[in-house]
Every structure is written in C-alpha cells, then in structure tokens.
Specification:
This protein is α/β, with parallel strands linked by helices and 252 residues long. The chain is 33% helix and 22% strand. The chain has six helices and eight strands. An eight-stranded mixed sheet has the order 1-2-4-3-5-6-7-8, with helices on both faces. Strand 3, helix 1 (45-56) and strand 4 form a beta-alpha-beta unit. Helix 3 (103-118) packs across helix 4. The protein is globular, with a radius of gyration of 17 Å. The chain starts with a strand and ends with a helix.
C-alpha cells in the first residue's frame, strides 16, 4: 500500500462549516477523488482508518462530519468500542440529528463538499466516487441523484431504509436522476434493509436504466464493516473492499 497523508480540514457549506478528514497518497500528485459518507456513529478514528486504506489504494478521500450543524466531531461522545448494549442510549441522541438530513440538506452539503474537492490539487475537477456506510449509503444515493454530472460511481454498504414504501424521501424514488454506476453490499442479517426493500430498490434502478450490482453478504449484520463495533465481520468487510475497489477502478 502507498504511504498516505491525512489531515483535518474545514469545508464551507451553505449552512455553516463542516469539519472533515482528508487523506491521499503522499506523493504530491493528483488522484481520483472519493467522498466517504460516515455511518450514524460519526467521524471517528475507525472511519479515518478506512479512508487511509482507500487512500493507500490510490485515491484522495474526504470524510465529512455530516452532523456539523450540531458541532465538530465527535458530535455524540462514543466509547472506544461500541457494544450492542451501548446502542439504545447512543441512538436516542443520534436519531433526531439524522432526521434533519433531508434530501435538500444533503444536496446543499454535497454542493460544498464537491466544490471544495474540485479546488484541491490532490484531487481535481474530474468525476468522483462515493462510498457510504449505514446512514451514509442513503447519503450516497441522494448525492448521486442531486449531482449526476459529477458522480461517476457510488457504493452503499449495510445501508438501511433505501427503498421504503412510506417515505416520500426514500432514495429509490430518485432512481431516474442517477447516472452513476452503483454497487451495494447488503447484509442478510440487516433488519433495516429486508429482502423486500432490496427487491424494491433493484426494481426501481432497473426500470430507470441505472447500471448497478447488488450483493447480499451471508452471515453479516448491519454495520459489518465497522471494526470498532460488535457488528464487525472481517470476511464481509474484505468482500466490501473488493467490491468497492473494483467499482472505483472501473469508474474513476
């Protein structure tokens, strides 16, 4: 893996300033750019490690704190290791913040992230890729729909609620706006993305002519890629890396 250089940065948006983590190969050269959308637990060392691994594969990676309206990361204090027993109290704080990330808010924020990235010498003005985790999978789809001219590929891993039939802002309803190629690594033990939602999402994308590939990882739970949580699954995580890098290598 290539040596990388990571740093904390601030990004102006229409609603304020988002703190973020930027990492890239340490070679003073431009590289294809990836926007990495966090899970609900937020910007923390685990996501920085994941971004560094992606940077080591040859990409410039930005991980914004999408909860910036509520302060700098960590917005919600976290234990070093998130056990199942910790989740109820954490989500009591997190769910109201998540609820504020409407499709319009996500699009406004993406304006800021993408404009900032386009001006960076480490990346440049070319098309970008997106990788989103849990909540971030929804943000990835919304950004691909709101910025089709800039997003070439997007991936979502253990995302939940991507194709609900009772939410007017469900991402699958925006399939006809997406031009990016998509990849999904769902978890078969994920109650937030049951088989009927996977089927509904695939149907919407197919009807809209969106190039996409869907895989369901056997034995994996919601959050399987996060090594600082009890849901971590090493086999599923490595499978996710293989699928993501294949997508990025083909599309960027």
């Amino acid at each position: 893996m290539t040596a990388v250089r990571g740093t904390k940065v601030d990004i102006p948006t229409r609603d304020g300033t988002a703190d973020a983590y930027l990492t890239h190969p340490d070679d003073n050269a431009p590289h294809p750019t990836v926007l990495l959308y966090m899970d609900a637990f937020g910007l923390r060392p685990q996501l920085q490690k994941m971004a560094d691994r992606l940077a080591g594969a040859g990409y410039t990676v930005l991980v914004p704190n999408v909860f910036y309206r509520h302060g700098r990361a960590p917005v919600v204090p976290l234990p070093d290791f998130i056990a199942s027993a910790d989740r109820p109290a954490l989500f009591e704080q997190i769910f109201p913040i998540m609820g504020e990330l409407t499709a319009d808010a996500v699009a406004r924020d993406a304006d800021g992230y993408l404009a900032w990235l386009a001006g960076r010498p480490e990346g440049g003005a070319g098309p970008i890729g997106i990788s989103g985790y849990c909540m971030g999978a929804r943000l990835a789809l919304l950004t691909a729909a709101s910025h089709p001219e800039k997003v070439a590929v997007a991936a979502g891993f253990h995302g939940g609620g991507l194709a609900t039939d009772d939410d007017p802002e469900s991402p699958h309803l925006l399939a006809d706006r997406i031009t990016a190629e998509l990849y999904f690594g769902h978890a078969d033990q994920d109650h937030s993305m049951p088989p009927e939602q996977i089927e509904r999402l695939d149907k919407a994308l197919a009807e809209a002519g969106v190039r996409h590939r869907t895989e369901v990882y056997t034995g994996a739970e919601h959050g399987y890629s996060m090594a600082d949580t009890e849901a971590y699954n090493a086999e599923a995580t490595e499978r996710h890396w293989a699928g993501l890098l294949e997508l990025l290598g083909r599309g960027l």
